[in-house]
Amino acid sequence: MNYKSKIIEDLISEKLKKIIVFIITFIVLFIISFFTVIPKKYSLQIGDIAPIDIKAPRDFEDEEATQEKIDKALSEVLPKYNKDLNIAKKSIEDINKIIENVKYQKEQNVNETTKIENIKNLVMISLSDEDIKSLLKLNEQELDALDKFLNDVLIKVLSLDIRENNLDDIKKAQQDLDFYIKSSTLNKNLKDLANSIGVASIKPNMFYDYEKTEELKQQIRRQIEPVVIKKNQNIVLKGEVINEHHLNLMSKAGILSQNRKNDFILILGVTILILSTLILLVFLVKNEGNVYSNLSFYVITCILLIITAILTFAFKIISVYFIPASFLPILSTLIFGSKTGLIISLINTLIVIILTNFNINVCIMYVMSCILGTFFTSKVQERNNILLSGLYVGIINFLIVYAINILNNTIYTQAVYSSIFVFLNSIVSSIFAIGVLPIFEQVFNILTPIKLLELSNPNQILLKKLLFEAPGTYHHSILVGNLAEAAANEIGANSLLARVGAYYHDIGKIKRPYFFKENQITNDNPHDKVTPKLSVSIITSHIRDGLELAQKYKLPNIIQDIIMQHHGTTLVKYFYVQALNEGENIIEDNFRYEGPKPNSKESAIIMLADSVEAAVRSLNSPTVDDIKTMVEKIINEKLFDNQLSESPLTFKDIEKIKEVFIKVLLGIFHTRIEYPDTTKEDKND
């Protein structure tokens, strides 16, 4: 199998593994979510006896009760009317016309029947022939008195609200008219005529306004709060006879066995949310510049999502506020760093939404736990401080949840209990994180920031051995660590890994410390007593010796890789040239380190920092130009020797590394300014 085929096979294999992990994660999350969102089903009919108390699995509207509430409110709505002020005016004008016409017809030389017909044709008020005959018999003073009386009375009567099609309003107006007539000083004949004309003149002055009435009804409909059946509220009590309303509520809640349509919608929603979570995770893996392989990153993250889902499903039985919301942000931050940890935790919000039945308050609490958990965990430098991080998250979440509950007018005791559960969940989350972290570190060989910080502690056994048995190498390693950290930070590599890797890169020198220049206190050099070939063997063996120590003390694989790669296949030039000068028949490869070459930014930076620091340290009272020249020379030699050919460093990165090295080394090695001796001047003074 050629090299290209091997690469293709590896890519296919890794892609297949990712697909398998994707499918397994989806199935597990789906099963957990299914038991959360799909409620227990009941096979019941009208007339059956409820075997148990049947409770609502979620909040939903009782549409029948809501409609009854609306109908009741609408039944109390009074119709809206518009008042026509011209009705009274028109009625008085009609009465005036009657009186004027009667006066006119009295003067006409025609028979009585014709006069009656003429009056009936000219006036708008309907009067009987007998009433008109009586009017024609009145003299002018009586007609004027009747006219004035009706004008005064109708102004009062028609000022009342008389609604159309409302007999009560008409009757009330007629009663008022009758009262005024009876209270008047008119004679009986005029009173009878006043009653006939007045009754005929009373007309509705209030007319139904359909638009305003409908607008009022719509406003009332909008104001009516729906009748909501709350989660865990009883729909039917044990022993109660099932009626049609019960069945409607159970159907609406989706808990009737014959009603599966709602289940399909819920399953579809769950599927979309879980797929969205995993797809977002895929994009995160593609864009994450992490020290772990994409497959490892993907597997670890999927396992974290599954563990979080299981814990959420289990703990919500006690209370939804007791779910270990800070577990994922704390653990993912410890493993991947704060940025990636926060993104993973926020992506998981979609799963939490499902598992908490879309409880908005819990979702707010979870998001706050993600932000706070990531923030406080990013500051953690010791494993024991993880619990302190959980404590801080718990205190702040306690206050936030308490405030939310108070603003929502939650019962005081319930608000307090919810807040206490939130506080406890943060503590429990941090305890779980402390317990689970070593398992992930061991199984996946994860080098977490907290593990790196622990390894950087000077009290670590290997670092103490290096300090006491090879003090020069220890000092050199610290300086290399400073250089590597500054350079890594400048180009966006893992600066903490670069620093810690530099601390351990030369631990192999512990075995034979005095064969290395930095540990030689006297002028005696052991290499003067052995052949160049043996010297090279001793020098290069510190790589193997370092690897053995790293494995013995169980240093992470990434640190072991740095130990193996920090010299690459560099030529041990001093002894190679010495062997040539002695006329030996030599092979160049025998004077090179075995490798491999650096394959990460951090190991490449440490290679350069190691060589540059040693070279600059060998200079005698170096100037600024000396340091710059030496840095350029060493890095160019590594480039020309192809030692960086397998590392992801770009030329732009290398230029930045040069600048950082020069800046740091100038602060360490360049010759101080010699201040003039002022003693003589003082004496002369």
TrEMBL record:
InterPro entries: HD/PDEase_dom, HD_domain, HDIG_dom, Metal-dep_PHydrolase_7TM_extra, Metal-dep_PHydrolase_7TM_intra, PgpH_phosphodiesterase
Annotated ranges, domain HD/PDEase: 469-624
Gene3D superfamilies, per database record: Hypothetical protein af1432
Pfam families with a match to the protein in the record: 7TM-7TMR_HD, 7TMR-HDED, HD
Signal peptide span: none
SUPFAM superfamilies for the chain: HD-domain/PDEase-like
Transmembrane segments: 20-38, 264-285, 297-324, 330-355, 362-380, 386-404, 416-440
Keywords: Membrane, Transmembrane, Transmembrane helix
Coiled coil regions in record: none
SMART domains membership: HDc (SM00471)
Protein name in the entry: HD/PDEase domain-containing protein
